């Protein structure tokens, strides 16, 4: 092993991700920025995930199937970089200067905690509303109390170690809970870069169901008790075929511009609605559980057709 420590450790938790992982690793290998190591933290996959990882020169850690939070923590324990970048296996870096541009912005703004825009691939017209809503929501929250999906989290390793990593006792939203704790100690920014992440979960579980799932999970930072009441089936490891597309630059710029011009309005709306939500938490819990039930019934009925 090279004695020189890399600046960046890229950590990828996996479970049967051989097909997707190769796309991600190819997009990493062509990067102009080279001062990194790749760590694949595998949950004892049955497919060729480990072989794919080794073929790209990744360091591989294999452990029992305990979920993505555990996988990220295991990868971080052996990471040698000053910075950690957690990616899911179905992410693709869109251009060869992505890491270079991202880290330049990190260093310029002296950040310890960040993420970026993210868009679904392969490009599908019916996913445009989801792309817009997701990025509008995440951008808005970045000014107030960030909600960061686990498929892309950047954090300085010293800060990660101080926080003792992800809470492995949390079944879902361990990524959001982790970033919320980190945000208490460091500024957070949603940077002016973007990545692609697969729409396979939407295809596999149904768009309507997932819309309500993520609406439901969103409230967990407003009403922390939701973490112990979730009625959500969240799977780790999927297997659909997908192609990469690059259609999102203009959309990202428009979303960015909107929020740069409306920060005060966004914060006012969030504060007002959050305070109201706390007052009616029992009604929200009942309503969202009912909606989740209807969404699951609809998707099951739709799948039979």
How many domain modules? 1
Mean pLDDT: 78
The overall strand count is 8
Structural class determined from secondary elements: alpha/beta
Biggest sheet layout:
8 strands, mixed
Low-confidence stretches: 221-234, 238-247
- Count the helices. How many? 12
Task: Indicate the radius of gyration in whole angstroms.
Answer: 19 Å
State which percent range the strand residues make up: 15-25%
Shape: globular
The CATH homologous superfamily is called Spore Coat Polysaccharide Biosynthesis Protein SpsA, Chain A
How far do the termini sit from each other? Answer: 55 Å
CATH topology group: Spore Coat Polysaccharide Biosynthesis Protein SpsA, Chain A
Name the CATH class: Alpha Beta
Q: How are the strands of the largest sheet arranged?
A: 3-2-1-4-7-6-8-5
